Amino acid sequence: MPAVPGRSEHWFAHDGQISKAPVRALTLAALAPVRGAHLWDIGGGSGAVAVEWCLAGGSATSIEALPARAANIRANAQRFGLQQRLQVLQGKAPDALQPQDGAPPLPTPQAVFVGGGFDAALFAWLQAQLPPGCRLVVNAVTLQTQALLTQLHGQHGGQLLKIDIASAAPLGRMHGWQAARTLLQWCWQRGGG
After folding, report:
1. What averages of pLDDT result for each successive group of 10 residues across the chain (193 residues)?
2. pTM confidence score
3. Scanning 1, 93, 189, 193, which has its CA 20 to 30 A from the CA of 177?
């Protein structure tokens, strides 16, 4: 298995809801994992970002609303031997991140990744909850969420990155470029841009 972020999708159990390898590599670079740091992975999908964060020496809490996807995240944690460092919560943010009756509080994150379900209400909640220095990285493919990220970038700063990736694919007897969905990535740090 490669030792760099952006491992091939075939290493992960998924239903198609997975950040593709090049996007995942860019996402991990934006998250900037450090040994011992904790990640909240919101809208976990397959959990691939959380897995790769943990493989870099951190720990993670992945939040996923759909039961089958939460099961995939657990399977991926087990496959990579990360059951002790990757916690899976089934539910939607921010409710799933709230203290639950009798459960210990979640570890404080040094970074948060939102791969799905981002909206203005979630940002407002995160803005109120995240500790100084915490890094937020949001990936968006829908026009509506991309418009929100553009607005938030204008209001709060940070870095805005447009990611267009194309791969060679058969085109008749030749090959041409097959474009992936355009992705907008916003990286913002609490207490700084």
Report:
1. 60 64 91 96 89 94 92 89 92 86 86 94 95 96 97 97 94 94 95 61
2. 0.90
3. 1
